[in-house]
Design a protein that fits this description.
Blueprint (H helix, E strand, L loop, with lengths): L2 E7 L3 H12 L6 E7 L4 H11 L4 E5 L5 H12 L4 E5 L3 E3 L4 H11 L3 E10 L6 E3 L4 H6 L8 E3 L6 E5 H7 L11 H11 L3 E12 L11 H20 L5 H19 L2 H13 L11 H9 L7
Parallel strand pairs: 1-2, 1-4, 2-3, 6-10
Antiparallel strand pairs: 4-9, 5-10, 6-7, 6-9, 8-10
Helix pairs in contact: 8-9, 8-10, 9-10
């Protein structure tokens, strides 16, 4: 099975180089590596690819920012693999057998459509892990970090998706642009009977870089997208009884964030956009089977 390694990058040439070096070391060879660059300086990316000299690596350029969802969709439309592996340009593999483990996990579990992995963020704490469990669950069950098991969502930093999932459920939602796009696809995959599996044996290191969203107040732009996207998710997928508390919790949380970073206008802009979506969203509320899957696998419905 061919694995397509798909990477979107923007003005992070040094981080991308580290990421690609970890890809070259992988012991599974049936791969293609597609990088989409929407940076301000194409020459730096072209220069890097000239040094790689590997026919499996391809570089593409977009003249405009496509956002997280748009970049991933553009790459999938060009990919030829049976499995799409996404990794952020500021992340890299820990071990050279990571792709082999991913392939074996998919082959052993035919109804698993998406794999999530253990992400180690290198910030203030070297042991800060980002895994598909909420904070409260991890405090009660810290051993989950090292246990492979079914889960209800996955993390964007690094994840793998069967091509068949995209054929059946559709691409990432371009309207979301930034944030919550993984949760949106998780809902759709689960609704179609696919399972999501946390493969704890794959470790990816993440070296967080400054945001590349927007050209001014990046944190404000991110907040705007998070606010509007929560409205989209609530109206699109949640049964009616969950919506009021769900939106109440998230809008309160984002209001505090807006006050803290001085981005109140972005918060209001997100609320307005979210309410506007009420008129155009086609509801496809989760069926009882999907809700049961979420409840059994640490999914969240009320917040």
């Amino acid at each position: 099975m061919k694995i397509s390694i798909l990477i979107g990058s923007r003005n992070r040439i040094n981080a991308l180089e580290r990421c690609l070096k970890s890809v070259v070391l992988q012991d599974y060879s049936d791969i293609e590596v597609l990088v989409l660059d929407d940076s301000d300086n194409q020459n730096e990316y072209k220069k890097l690819f000239r040094t790689i000299k590997d026919p499996r690596f391809q570089l593409f350029h977009s003249p405009r920012p496509l956002g997280v969802s748009g970049s991933r969709n553009s790459l999938m439309e060009k990919a030829k693999g049976d499995i799409y592996f996404f990794i952020d340009d500021d992340a890299y593999f820990d071990e050279k057998d990571s792709l082999t483990i991913i392939l074996e996990s998919f082959l052993a579990q035919p109804r698993v459509g998406i794999l999530a992995f253990k992400i180690q963020n290198h910030g203030e704490s070297e042991r800060e892990y980002n895994v598909p469990f909420n904070t409260g669950t991890l405090k009660r069950n810290p051993q989950l970090i090292g246990q492979s098991r079914f889960v209800a969502y996955f993390l964007g930093t690094a994840h793998a998706i069967r091509k068949d999932v995209i054929k059946e459920c559709g691409l990432y939602n371009n309207a979301l642009f930034f944030g919550e796009e993984e949760l949106d696809l998780s809902y759709r995959a689960i609704s179609h009977g696919w399972e999501i599996y946390y493969e704890s044996n794959v470790l990816v290191h993440h070296m967080p870089q400054p945001s590349v969203i927007g050209k001014g107040n990046c944190m404000g732009e991110e907040l705007f997208h998070h606010v509007k996207n929560r409205f989209y998710l609530a109206f699109s997928y949640l049964p009616a009884r969950f919506i009021p508390l769900y939106l109440g919790i998230w809008t309160s949380k984002y209001l505090l964030d807006a006050i803290q970073i001085g981005a109140f206008k972005f918060y209001i802009k997100g609320i307005i956009k979210g309410l506007f979506w009420l008129r155009i969203i086609r509801r496809d509320a989760l069926k009882p089977e999907a809700i049961e899957y979420l409840r059994e696998n640490f999914g969240r419905l009320w917040y």
